[in-house]
Amino acid sequence: MAFLHARAWPGPSWRQLSEGAMRGMAQSVDDWSDWLAPEEEAAEAEAQEGRRVGAGLRLRAEGDSLFVVNPVPGAPAAAAGAKIGDEILAVGANEVREVGPDAAIDLLDGAPGSVVALRVRRVNGSEETLSVRLAGYDSPTVSGACLVAPGIGYAAIEEFGDATAAELRDTLSALGAAALDGIVLDLRDNPGGVVEEAVAAAALFLPRGATVLRTTGRVRRDDDCEYRTRAEPPYPRLPLAILADGCTASAAEIFCGALREAGRAVLVGSRTFGKGVVQDVFGAPGRPGSAFRLTVASCETPGGDAFHGRGFEPDVPVRQTDAAFFDSLALRMARSNPELVFSSADRARLLAVPDAPLEAALGLLRAVSAPDSASGKPENDRTRH
User: Fold this and answer.
1) Mean pLDDT lowest among 127-136, 279-288, 342-351
2) Closest CA to 187 of 148, 154, 159, 165
3) Which of the residues 51, 88, 158, 296 could staple to 66 if both were Cys, CB 3.0 to 4.6 A apart?
4) How many domains is the chain built from?
């Protein structure tokens, strides 16, 4: 009989085993439930509040290559000189083509104050090594606001955090939305977030007392809910076009579904992801700071459309490749943050990239605002605020 001395055991620690057991137990509930270690729970709470820790880079992978789409303005990577279009060649001593893009992205995580060396290839072919000191940074959830065409505004909702509805209202006010012919709201690549903020954002456009969402809970008394708007909307008739794609999910789909079903918005792009369930966070007994994130309810639109697993088909389907989407995202950031663009030539390249879903949305809004031939008045004839 063979004996193994405990101190020679090379396997995981008791803590690792217990944490793995808790994670496995949570994940057995469904695909969206999980156990969060204290550092994961703290990071999620900060992200929900619009505060993150890290390099502050939005990246895209192309095969074995990794490119910078958006260095968040004011975040560590942008401060170190990262620009739109940079190709990340190495993170520290790790070559991206050797370890792969996913592993390289993981290497960008670290404790605040730690330094990560990024070797990048600029758009013009030159190479440079950037020293990025990881730190906390603010990450607003509404970005890219601009007049994208005469009389038509644009804003992107990147996710739904604790302040998204207020950010959107302030953004629309700054654009002078009440006097515009329409607004394009870009929810492509929006993974969702806080349900209550999606409801509050929808309430900017829906009448008081309108139903935005219905949920059916695992525990019926606690999680059967009907979410309604509570105030008069500032923009009850402003024409809206929403851009969506296969990464528009969860709370973002709640927002899209409610506005489209109410006849307040046209959905343009491709079918949404189809995550129609709600999670809540519960503290893990005996594990201070950790938590279980568990699915507590399923979602339906006000009209009873359960979109989980199906998503929403757009009113105006417009196909777009991943590369074209990321170019359009980079262009949005270039418009609002010119300092993130490496060169005037790269900016010109971005300006030449067509954004087919956006162009389709602009066409729809122009048609809505065109003068009626009989009356000479705008077809939407909305109230000015």
Assistant:
1) 342-351
2) 159
3) 88
4) 2
